[in-house]
Amino acid sequence: MSEKRTELSDLGEFGLIDRIKNSVKISNDTTKLGIGDDSAILDTKQGQLLISTDMLLEGIHFDLSYAPLAHLGYKAVAVNVSDIAAMNGVASQLTVNIGLSNRFSLEAVDTLYQGILKACEDFKLDLIGGDTSSSASGLVISVTAIGSADEKHIVRRSGANKGDIICVTGDLGAAYLGLQVLEREKQVFLTNPEMQPQLDKYDYIVQRQLKPTARMDIIHELAELSVLPTAMIDISDGLGSELFHIAKESQVGVQIYEDKLPIDKQTYDTGYELGIDATTAAVNGGEDYELLFTISQEDYEKVKNHSDIHFIGYVKERSEGCKMVSKQGNLVDITAQGWNHIKTKN
Ligand code: ADP
Ligand code: MG
User: Closest Cα to atom 22, ligand 1: which residue?
Assistant: First the structure.
């Protein structure tokens, strides 16, 4: 391979931090000071602060044999922005901690940061700091997103009321099936390295797994429509698991309808091919990073024509539990299989 490789040791930690600092452009006026001092400075006049953090570990949360570094950087940011969005907040700043083994060259770190900075641009965030360390066991990325919301507009998991309409954005199950395809292609490659991965016909679901987006757009649109959800959560562990969280925190039951679940055609087709039921992927898969929220019935008129918000069921009495009406009309229990990395990886 003729790709250039510069050792990180040639630059040193401070050289690397300088390089990151020089690639950052501050765009939010709440950011008073970014990278370069002992601490960043934020102006917190705007409402209440929201802080969310996530850690991604190589071999547990991602596999570098198929996750390109730029996508990984993007995803690490998007999943945190998604958590701020799920509070009905707007994310504005970001810190990034990275642990790097000597397997990583400067070019690899640059690629990772290209993804991080692209996400910062897409979601209008300022990268304001972080920490850099060497790692003895693969790549570690820990991202913290900082955002804000007016106190009156913050939406928790706990506010759903009986009779509310359950809404979900985008479509579900694609990221899970995308992962199954990537795992399959990896096994094919391991047995026969001459084989090139056949991913063209899975482009949508693979991209949903590798480079998810955060639905900050929906947060702005709900504000424009003057709709304040009663409860909200982002879908990281799967619809079923998130419904359980809302039900538990709000002390309610839920009933959704299988035929209302938004599922993309490529998800259906791939599920069929792999012998995985698309509904199971949608309910028990994960990593969709769409928003699940409840609205009062009075707000329905305001959102009913939104092309990317789908109405999948109703909030019920706590005693009714968490149920799904199947396509055949049967009432079935929803199971909450979280996206359990310990269970799915070996
Ligand atoms: P300290 O010794 O005070 O922890 P560092 O040398 O770790 O300082 O960091 C110097 C500056 O660079 C700080 O502003 C810090 O937030 C920032 N920084 C360090 N690592 C990263 C990184 N991986 N990404 C973004 N900013 C970073
Ligand atoms: Mg430090």
Answer: 130
- Tell me whether residue 84 is exposed, middle or buried, using C-beta atoms within 10 angstroms of its C-beta: 0 to 12, 13 to 18, 19 or more: buried
User: Which amino acid residue places its CA nearest to atom 16 of ligand 1?
Assistant: 129
Query: Residue 261: which of 181, 201, 206, 327 has the closest Cα?
Result: 327
Q: How far is the CA of 216 from the centre of ligand 1 (A)?
A: 27
Task: Compute, in angstroms, the gap from residue 134 CA to the centroid of ligand 1.
Answer: 13
Cα 55 from Cα 34, distance rounded (Å): 21
d(CA 69, CA 105): 12
Atom of ligand 1 nearest to the CA of 129: 16
- The 10 Å Cβ neighbour count of residue 297 is 11
**60 CB less than 6 Å from ligand 1?**
no
Starting from the CA of residue 8, give the closest ligand: 1
**Per-residue pLDDT for the chain (346 aa), expressed as one digit of tens each?**
457 899 988 988 889 999 999 999 999 999 999 999 999 999 987 789 999 999 999 999 999 988 999 999 999 999 999 999 999 999 999 999 999 998 899 999 999 999 999 999 999 999 999 999 999 989 999 999 999 999 999 999 999 999 999 999 999 999 999 999 999 988 888 888 887 777 889 999 999 999 999 999 999 999 999 999 999 999 999 999 999 999 999 999 999 999 999 999 999 999 999 999 999 999 999 999 999 999 999 999 999 999 999 999 999 999 999 999 999 999 999 986 654 443 443 3
Indicate if ligand 1 lies below 6 Å from the C-beta of 36. yes
List the end-to-end C-alpha distance of the chain, in Å, as a whole number: 31
Report in angstroms the alpha-carbon separations of 148 from 93, 112, 154, 299: 10, 26, 9, 24
User: Considering only CA atoms, which residue is closest to atom 11 of ligand 1?
Assistant: 36
Q: How far is the CA of 133 from the centre of ligand 2 (A)?
A: 8
